[in-house]
Amino acid sequence: MTVQKARLGSHCPQILDAYGQPILKTPPGWQGLLIKETLVPGDAECGPQFTESPTLSFFLSGVVKRWYRSGNHTRIFENKAPGFDIYGRTYERDFGKWKGIAGTSLRLKIPREIIQRFLPEQAANFDLETRFAHEDNHLRELVLLLTKELKSGAQNGKLFAEGLSIAILGWLTQNYAAKKSLPHKEQKLSHRHQKQICNFIEDSLDSDLSVETMANLVGISPGHFAVLFRTTFGITPHQYVLQKRIDKAAELLRTHPEFSILDVAMTTGFSSQAHLTYSFKRYLQQTPARWKSGK
After folding, report:
1. Do you find a cis peptide bond into 288, omega within 30 degrees of 0?
2. What is the pLDDT of residues 87-112, one digit of tens each?
3. Contact 164, 145 (CB under 8 A)
């Protein structure tokens, strides 16, 4: 008799809001990795399960002891925050058992199309080492930041979502890849590409810029472009564009007093007046209104 295998995590339902929709909804135009917030049972069992794509599960709450059996080998470990599990692309198990205090987790799946988009040169062979009850504060912080961005409706724009996704993929590739890549000599964008990108950004501050668009402009994959950009300018594409937008906003507030703060926000690519005010205050230590008045 053939035992039907289930996809990994199928026993953990997504957490829904008051309207019956996933609490982590994908906003229109979302360009980043996808994350689900799920319930983790305290006492449960499941039969054979498998993954098709590398998958990560970050514990948020609860404490659960687990027994995973694959063939003649059984792993026994405890899951709790801030730990997480990594399941490689070919991971399978025959039996799973949970016992403890139910909680919640963030499940991050990395399908091939995401790798093809951001790291096309690695799409054919990308995979992660399977690990259980692992801890990595930097990776956890990146995932929590991306989760917060999803919950906010992607208020910081496409570039920020893409930048976080590429940072997560880069960290995973560097630290958890099943096949380690050889270290390579540090490279930078050519002077021609630097000028091309800087001019493009200056001319496009009012649009929803993306890493993918800039990478395509110079014929480089988004993941490699993000690395080269940071090596060249010392900051991420999102940080660079944000600085340019604030600089332009500061200029318009002083040279065009007839513009409202909302007008300036829309002209310089901010999602709202509140977004401009928040970023402006962090960058220049004063509000746009105070800057505009020259006090």
Report:
1. no
2. 999 899 999 999 999 999 999 999 88
3. yes
User: How far is Cα 107 from Cα 59, in angstroms, rounded to an integer?
Assistant: 9
- Residue whose C-alpha is closest to residue 123's, from 53, 186, 175, 183: 53
- The single-letter code of the amino acid at 141 is E
pLDDT > 90 in the chain, percent: 57
* Cβ partners under 8 Å of residue 179, min gap 6: 125, 127
Q: Report the C-alpha gap between 57 and 106 in whole angstroms.
A: 6
CA 168 – CA 172 distance, rounded (Å): 6
Sign of dihedral through CA atoms 143, 148, 153, 155?
A: negative
**pTM for this prediction:** 0.83
**CA 263, CA 78: separation in Å to the nearest integer?**
53
Segment 135-183, tens digit of pLDDT: 999 999 999 999 998 888 888 888 888 899 999 999 999 999 987 554 4
Backbone phi, then psi, for 183, in 5-degree steps? -60, 140
pLDDT per position as a tens digit, 219-256: 988 988 998 998 999 999 999 999 999 999 999 999 99
Which residue, 244, 231, 243, 241, is CA-closest to 190? 231
